[in-house]
């Protein structure tokens, strides 16, 4: 649970979900206190004959009942994590099949991480795994780290205390039981306290940490999820160098079963139009992990689509991640890698950073069995609207847009993404290449909504990395934000309505060759979305680049 305070003027909607809780200031400004806990929301859309149906009563048992709106939408808030639910729709003159459901159109939105959180470690390729633990609490937090192998067996357990508003890094390769020919999961438990962070993979091109790196990328911590989840796969090699096109872009889907019993999962592959191609079934032991090919088995430069993870048991809890790897024709070694967001999809308006440099590809995927009409509005960094467009996606279909053809060259900006169906996933892929067209690095930024007034993340200046904070403003008014590094070191930044600002971090007052935590505070909840970009330049050329969401 967290409590935030701030000020507001005029009328503001304080409901972070689909509902409305308008408050009007008594004068020019009023103050507010808000309490946020680790709650979830259930939302969806009722349709009949392909048309959205209003006036339907949806009974959710202990969560109460609600009625679908004019566009068929409904939602339940404050649903506790891990709670079972059944929905029963009813309307005079209509019959519903099935009469009760936990169906694929239900969207579970997790508004905060719930301890324990989990991530994936990987020993293959001699990857160095760095666990980055971020404590956003105002007090020191005892933290238990459980290190498991591929079968879910515990290899080691350790406990450390993370100081208030601080970060601690642990090299997983140094833990007992680590193997360079296997993989598994890491669980991080702080009890009732908050925790955030990630695992960052570094692949050095030699045994020296001061040498060039083949790639580096980060996977944020995940809370256990249940129900279906989706990710975009893409077998096309994005290189502009013809020699690289002879190489695959291997894509691997990782699944970890967090249930106490073995569970079966169906992996369903669909093409870009949403048509089913094939399925596979995995049986995973308790707390075990399995990795499966996710697209590249269909051949190179041939197909894109969406893959779904569907647990046979609706109560099963699990985490997933999808990673893409690129190979250079220069030496046949990996030259980039990144994680692709895997999620159920979103029913809320989301924000994505975009730029007018290199090849920036916006991937939109409809992870719903309903047709999805998507409204896209593009803005430059000063919030000037550049283009408003609508895309219609068939069930489980996707579309790719070239963002750099809309944003002016050398400029940066944002795009808001708002779908009509209950599930929509989106990400923008940034490709950085050299003069010959070969890719030096690539990263993905996930489309997401914004919550709360205080966001947290960390910076890292080791290995001579540069760090930038990309801040996007999803609201219709200018927002003033404070970046707080602790110890009295702060930076103020103003972000125009619908605009974007990129801030070099850390502040000049902080030392180089260090890492640490920071907070990004706004006066209003749900207005800012941000990423931290870490980049290393070696001999005048980009060595690697990795991005983490500020949450």
Structure description:
With 551 residues, the chain is mostly beta strands. Helices cover 0% and strands 54% of the residues. The strands form 13 sheets. It has a four-stranded antiparallel sheet, with no helix packed on it. A four-stranded antiparallel sheet has the order 17-14-19-20, with no helix packed on it. Strands 21-26-23-24 form a four-stranded antiparallel sheet, with no helix packed on it. Strand 39 and strand 40 form a beta hairpin. The radius of gyration is 23 Å and the shape is globular. Mean pLDDT is 83; it is low at 1-8, 28-39 and 103-111.
Essential attributes:
single chain, 551 residues, mainly beta, 4-stranded antiparallel beta sheet, 54% strand, globular, disordered N terminus
């Amino acid at each position: 649970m967290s409590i935030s305070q701030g000020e507001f003027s005029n009328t503001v909607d304080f409901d972070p979900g689909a509902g409305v809780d308008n408050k009007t200031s008594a004068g020019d400004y009023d103050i507010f206190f808000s309490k946020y806990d680790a709650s979830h929301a259930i939302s969806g859309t009722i349709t009949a004959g392909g048309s959205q149906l209003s006036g339907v009563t949806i009974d959710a048992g202990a969560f109460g009942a609600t009625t679908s709106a004019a566009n068929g939408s409904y939602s339940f808030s404050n649903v506790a994590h891990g709670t079972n639910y059944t929905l029963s729709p009813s309307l005079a003159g209509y019959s519903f099949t099935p009469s009760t459901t936990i169906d694929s159109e239900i969207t579970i939105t997790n508004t905060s991480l719930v301890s324990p959180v989990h991530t994936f470690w990987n020993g293959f390729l001699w990857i160095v795994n760095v666990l980055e633990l971020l404590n956003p609490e105002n007090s020191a937090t005892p933290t238990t780290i459980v290190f498991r192998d591929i079968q879910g067996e515990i290899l080691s357990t350790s406990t450390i205390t993370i100081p208030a508003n601080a970060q601690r890094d642990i090299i997983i390769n140094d833990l007992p039981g680590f193997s360079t020919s296997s993989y598994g999961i890491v669980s991080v438990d702080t009890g009732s306290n908050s925790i955030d962070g990630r695992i960052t993979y570094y692949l050095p091109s030699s045994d020296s940490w001061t040498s060039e790196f083949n790639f580096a990328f980060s996977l944020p911590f995940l809370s256990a999820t249940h129900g279906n989840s989706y990710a975009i796969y893409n077998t096309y090699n994005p290189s502009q160098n013809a020699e690289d096109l002879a190489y695959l872009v291997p894509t691997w889907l990782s699944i970890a079963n967090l249930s106490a019993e073995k569970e079966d999962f169906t992996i369903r592959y669909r093409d870009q139009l949403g048509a089913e191609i094939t399925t596979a079934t995995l049986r995973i032991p308790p707390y075990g992990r399995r990795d499966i090919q996710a697209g590249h088995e269909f051949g190179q430069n041939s197909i894109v689509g969406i893959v779904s993870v569907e647990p046979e048991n609706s109560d099963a809890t699990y985490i997933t991640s999808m990673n893409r790897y690129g190979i250079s024709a220069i030496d046949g070694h990996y030259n980039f890698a990144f994680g692709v967001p895997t999620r159920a999809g979103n029913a809320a308006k989301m924000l994505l950073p975009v730029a007018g440099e290199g090849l920036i590809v916006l991937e939109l995927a409809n992870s719903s069995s309903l047709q999805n009409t998507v409204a896209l509005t593009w803005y430059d960094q000063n919030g000037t609207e550049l283009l408003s467009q609508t895309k219609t996606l068939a069930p489980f279909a996707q579309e790719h847009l070239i963002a750099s053809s809309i944003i002016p060259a050398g400029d940066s900006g944002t795009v808001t993404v708002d779908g009509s169906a209950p599930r929509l996933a989106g990400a923008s892929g940034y490709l950085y290449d050299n003069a010959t067209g070969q890719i030096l690095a690539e990263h993905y930024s996930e489309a997401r909504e914004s919550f709360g007034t205080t966001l947290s993340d960390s910076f890292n200046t080791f290995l001579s990395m540069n760090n930038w904070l990309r801040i996007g403003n999803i609201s219709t008014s200018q927002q003033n934000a404070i970046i707080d590094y602790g110890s009295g070191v702060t930076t103020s930044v103003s972000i125009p309505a619908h605009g974007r600002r990129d801030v070099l971090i850390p502040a000049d007052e902080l030392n180089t060759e260090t890492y640490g935590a920071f907070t990004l505070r706004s006066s209003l909840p749900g207005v800012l979305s941000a990423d931290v970009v870490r980049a290393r330049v070696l001999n005048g050329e980009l060595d690697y680049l990795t991005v983490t969401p500020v949450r």
